[in-house]
Design goal:
232 residues; mainly alpha
């Protein structure tokens, strides 16, 4: 008799949920296209409106980058959960033999990928508009992005699950997300400002550690609370 295949472990289940979202996005391009376009439009509008001199890159460019990412994150999370509402997909996901924590981790990972694509669009646009040398600041800025993005994705995924069944879900999601994203966004803006101001990378470590703390806080909180929230 052929040996029965064992069910996938937790990381395998995360990979299944992540793969599902990435496959859908590869076929439609809906989330990255709309979020990327919206974030780029916000960045260009803010850059043109706030550009006031040669020191603008230090004072304004960091806020423009993370403001665009914050607004795009709401759009990306909303569209990611909107897919789960279509044709009973969420119910099918919940009755599947996949743990609730794996669903949360897989959804958060896909949102993080979508946001990273948006950031790859926004950062070069802002760099061009504010004459920022990405060859000089690129690697430290990448570290800031990698430290901030998981926290944004964890927060959005957790509270996106709370609003998936509400009528005014986009308004409720934005109202809940933005206050909770504030510590991560403030740390990212401050770190980016110091970087563009000429600070060496070792002076940014406190900001990076703060973002990692919030990554862990919302990650652990999401893994433990997601099951109760999605079924509540």
């Amino acid at each position: 008799m052929p040996a029965s295949s064992s069910p996938p472990g937790w990381f395998g289940q995360v990979g299944i949920v992540l793969g599902k979202d990435l496959l859908l996005e590869r076929r439609t391009g809906e989330i990255t296209t709309t979020s990327g376009f919206f974030a780029t439009l916000v960045a260009i509008t803010a850059s043109v409106s706030l550009h006031s001199g040669p020191d603008t890159a230090t004072r304004v460019a960091p806020a423009v980058i993370w403001l665009a990412v914050a607004f795009a994150s709401v759009l990306a999370v909303g569209k990611s959960w909107a897919r789960e509402r279509e044709e009973g997909a969420l119910r099918g996901l919940l009755v599947s033999p996949v743990s609730r924590s794996a669903i949360f981790a897989g959804k958060a990972a896909s949102v993080a990928v979508f946001l990273f694509v948006v950031e790859l669009l926004v950062v070069p646009v802002v760099a061009v508009l504010f004459s920022i040398d990405l060859l000089k600041h690129g690697l430290p800025l990448l570290a800031i992005v990698l430290a901030a993005t998981p926290g944004i994705a964890f927060t959005g995924t957790l509270f996106g699950s709370m609003t998936v069944r509400t009528r005014a879900r986009d308004l409720v999601l934005a109202s809940v997300m933005f206050p909770l994203l504030l510590p991560t966004l403030l740390a990212a803006v401050a770190a980016t400002r110091e970087l563009f101001g000429g600070a060496p990378f070792d002076e940014l470590t406190d900001y990076l550690l703060l973002m990692v703390v919030f990554d862990l806080l919302f990650g652990v909180g999401g893994l433990s609370m997601f099951g109760a929230l999605i079924e509540g």
